[in-house]
Specification:
alpha+beta, Putative xylanase fold, 10 strands, about 20% strand
């Protein structure tokens, strides 16, 4: 009996050791979950719920590399500073929870891990979905979203990222040669798939099929990378803008320029992939 009591005592500490979340982030998450639990949004489409949540993060500071904490791979929850990917992950996780009527910290951990890692399981650094095109594919397999790019006129995207395995010096965790082998395997799997994109020159003619709340992944002309930036589509004055964690302006914002003009202003950005959330 004494052993059972001791095990029960230590279980919360073990669980806490698998997640990194500051007091400020925990407080913000708790207050956000409480607010969402009181809103009458559960019966609304998940696209609309996601957009409501996404705009609540406006002006949150942009902070990069918040997931790179060293040591064993742990689930990082940071709502006080977001990069473009963690912004999307936070919004999607909260939207799914709201639709499911689940508003606990523990369920947030579960949903975020399911979204962020290959096949929904955190099994070390290589299991994180580092390449966003891989993130799209894997989360479509999980039933979280649908890549609609081909359906709305996309053409084949030559996608063969290799930047991580070619440049391990930029990734402290890749001092582990076994991890590099895992990354190479993931890169080969990505290359074997067929992806589509909307070239930026054709975006205006397809823009009417993009809805507010759709996920936008900006493709890049660099051959060893797949995606340069991500955000959420939002219609303003009849055109699609980008709701995103902006590196340039260091905060979550709605782009002043329409999405098509943003892309035309960046030579290396070649077009977009478009994904639509599915109901949980």
């Amino acid at each position: 009996m004494r052993l059972i009591v001791l095990l029960l005592f230590f279980l919360p500490l073990v669980a806490a050791g698998q997640t990194i979340c500051s007091k400020e982030s925990r407080d913000r998450l708790d207050s956000t979950l409480l607010a969402l639990s009181k809103l009458q949004v559960a019966q609304k489409p998940i696209q609309e719920v996601a957009l409501t949540i996404a705009t609540s993060f406006l002006n949150t500071p942009y902070v990069e590399k918040t997931l790179e904490v060293g040591g064993d791979e742990r689930l990082v929850i940071n709502l006080m500073g977001l990069d473009c990917t963690t912004y999307l992950e936070s919004v999607i996780t909260l939207a799914r929870m709201t639709k499911l009527g689940r508003f606990t910290f523990e369920y947030y951990e579960k949903e975020l891990e399911f979204l962020r890692y290959r096949n929904g399981k955190r099994e070390g650094y290589p299991s994180r979905l580092h390449y966003f095109s891989d993130w799209i594919y894997n989360n479509q397999q999980k039933g979280i979203l649908k890549d609609i790019t081909a359906d709305i006129g996309g053409v084949v995207y030559e996608n063969a990222p290799s930047f991580m395995s070619q440049n391990p010096k930029y990734y402290p965790q890749l001092t582990n040669a076994e991890f590099i082998d895992h990354i190479k395997k993931s890169e080969a799997e990505i290359k074997s798939r067929t992806y589509h994109y909307l070239p930026k020159e054709t975006l205006e003619s397809h823009e009417g099929q993009i809805k507010s709340g759709d996920l936008i992944a900006i493709t890049i002309s660099t051959s060893n990378l797949d995606i340069s930036h991500v955000g959420i589509a939002i219609e303003q004055n009849g055109t699609i803008h980008l709701l995103h964690a902006s590196l340039d302006h260091k905060k979550v914002e709605i782009s002043q320029k329409p999405l098509r003009d943003l892309l035309m202003g960046h030579k290396s950005q070649s077009g977009i992939m478009v994904c639509r959330l599915t109901e949980p």
